[in-house]
Amino acid sequence: MKLELVGITKKFGSLIANDHIDLEVEPGQIHALLGENGAGKSTLMNVLYGLYDPDEGEIRIDGKPVRFNGPGDAVAAGIGMVHQHFMLVPVFTVAESVALGYEPTHPAFGIINVKEAHRLVEDVSKRFGFDLDPKAKIEDLTVGAQQRVEIVKALSRKAEVLILDEPTAVLTPAETDELMAIMRELAAAGTSIVFITHKLREVRAVADKITVIRRGKVVGEAAPDSTEAELATMMVGRSVMLKVDKEPPAPGPVTLALQNLSYVNDDQVTILERINLEVQAGEILGIAGVQGNGQTELTEILLGLRQPTTGTIELDGESIVKHPVRRRVDEGLGFIPEDRIRDGIVSKFSVAENLVLNQYRSSKFSRGLSIKPKAVLENAETLRDEFDIRLSDVTNPITTLSGGNQQKVIVAREMSRHLKLLVASQPTRGVDVGSIEFIHNRIVKERDTGTAVVLVSSELDEIQALSDRIAVMYRGRIVGIVPAHTPNSVLGLMMAGVPMEEAMQKEAQ
Ligand SMILES: Nc1ncnc2c1ncn2[C@@H]1O[C@H](COP(=O)(O)OP(=O)(O)OP(=O)(O)O)[C@@H](O)[C@H]1O
């Protein structure tokens, strides 16, 4: 099916999120939408999926105008969307989830039974190379597999156009490769895909056509064989440094020391095993590893969201293991969480309020029990300008910001005060290339003022670009700590559990 968006305009108050956007998607095409944070990509997709009514413009399918009064209409017209935050029920099986995917309230669908869904999952898995067991429980699946369930759900509703809004943000590199292979298979079978991502190498790897949006307008089309630098320039409107420029570190005394730290979860599974780590003031320690090897729990233990089962945590020589989160924050710990919606923001608060969550009790922002509104507002406006947070008004709810701009709010808040220790987990997730450059430079600057930085990232490029030393985690243990210039191949072997010496020997052969 051929899809056309013609002159789509969508306003939020005085903000024009989409300004007369034209977009054509041919059958079987992988069409990448590229644009900075807040450019209007998600808004456009929400219009296409019937979630927003456009103020102007129309959607055409095979040349005929259509009107969607909600996602049910879009689905009936053959449009499917896989959201970043899946809405699957943990205790259901894969087949049950797919069966549930039908919208029984809509006349276009009957409810299919679980048996049919079971067959469908098997068929789709075989046809497109999905690795999905219809009987598996959702809660036992990796994020990548859960995403495949969402894709099967969309296909089971006969989607001919599939919208993937930043599908790789939550995937491991291996899962990303699998998803890209699946996208190619789907496109070869005639499904069109609208693909949103900030990762330029993915765009280069799969896109047949690339449309670039800036501040709500289409600025042009980029050739699929454009270099990353060319794509970045077109997106941001200036040239972007894709490499981090930094001086060698000047490490000071040990800021963070972990000794024999172990963590056994409620199901008696050992998640962290005898972690010993030291991070000095003025250095960035990167933690590399395939997601799910204990990194998340480690960062949560550092902040105080979880208690270790055994072991000690010292900050500047003082044990903080018994200190609650609030106290650790007051003691100079900054935290950029991997799950920004759950741990990073308070959804019902404004942008300005979210920007002082870690400091609202300080005399700068409050007097006794009352907040100083002017100071909170001024702080927000300063950080907005400094961190280039794109928004219309700092008093608006944080949920009206685009995903990448919400991330920038968290980064700005955590870096707006003097820190002893910064724990940054996936700090540039969902952030555009221009802002990645900025955030990377800020992290280096933070280091250079003497902060100890623990960086967790599933992007090996990011770990290598920023770290002074790299600790590799595998199944809850530190496999080894290596210098930043360690080759990718050695890191890759260590991430698969190969001990450091052995990995280095293999590399030397
Ligand atoms: N419900 C809303 N109310 C007010 N403004 C909104 C709302 N939703 C989006 N916006 C604004 O519309 C603009 C476009 O946002 P959108 O989410 O479409 O950007 P995006 O290109 O998807 O960005 P990102 O790459 O960060 O996800 C932003 O300025 C955003 O703040």
UniProtKB/TrEMBL annotation:
SUPFAM superfamilies membership: P-loop containing nucleoside triphosphate hydrolases
Q: Does the keyword Nucleus apply?
A: no
Membrane topology is:
Peripheral membrane protein
- The organism is Flaviflexus salsibiostraticola
What keyword terms does UniProt attach to this protein?
ATP-binding, Cell membrane, Membrane, Nucleotide-binding, Repeat, Translocase, Transport
InterPro entries to which the protein is assigned, alphabetical: AAA+_ATPase, ABC_carbohydrate_import_ATPase, ABC_transporter-like_ATP-bd, ABC_transporter-like_CS, P-loop_NTPase
Localization, per the record, is: Cell membrane
Q: Does the keyword ATP-binding apply?
A: yes
Q: Boundaries of each ABC transporter domain copy?
A: 3-240, 256-500
> Per its record, what are the GO molecular function terms?
ATP binding; ATP hydrolysis activity
The record's CDD domains line, in alphabetical order, gives: ABC_Carb_Monos_I, ABC_Carb_Monos_II
> Which cellular component appears as one GO term in the record?
plasma membrane
One Pfam family, short name please?
ABC_tran
Q: What is the protein name given in its UniProt record?
A: ABC transporter ATP-binding protein
